[in-house]
From TrEMBL:
Species assigned in the record: Enterococcus florum
Gene Ontology biological-process entries: phosphoenolpyruvate-dependent sugar phosphotransferase system
Keyword Transferase among record annotations: yes
Keyword 4Fe-4S found: no
Molecular function GO labels: protein-N(PI)-phosphohistidine-sugar phosphotransferase activity
Keywords assigned by UniProt, alphabetized: Transferase
Name of this chain's protein: PTS galactitol transporter subunit IIB
Positions of the PTS EIIB type-2 domain: 2-92
């Protein structure tokens, strides 16, 4: 089971959209995944045991976990490329 955190800057609206897209992607690809959501400022305390962080806000800190910018799920631009980056990490 892969564990993914989807983080946004403030409220949960954009992270909910991205989290749902990641769940759909993993299901379509047959990858068991647990997706949770948080705010960017909570990442440090929630990163343990996580395989991937997807953010809809800018993040510059290194959490020791792959970080993918997931704003494509909100904007609709470059979704395929973002999905491929996510799959590359989840299939490791």
């Amino acid at each position: 089971m892969k564990k993914v955190i989807v983080a946004c800057g403030g409220a949960v609206a954009t992270s909910t959209v991205a989290a749902n897209k990641i769940r759909e992607l993993a299901k379509r690809e047959g990858i068991p995944v647990e997706v949770s959501q948080c705010r960017v400022n909570e990442l440090e305390s929630k990163k343990d045991g996580i395989d991937l962080i997807v953010t809809t806000a800018k993040v510059k800190k290194d959490y020791g976990v792959p970080v993918i910018h997931g704003v494509a799920f909100v904007s609709g631009v470059n979704i395929e490329a973002t999905e491929q980056k996510i799959l590359d990490v989840l299939k490791q």
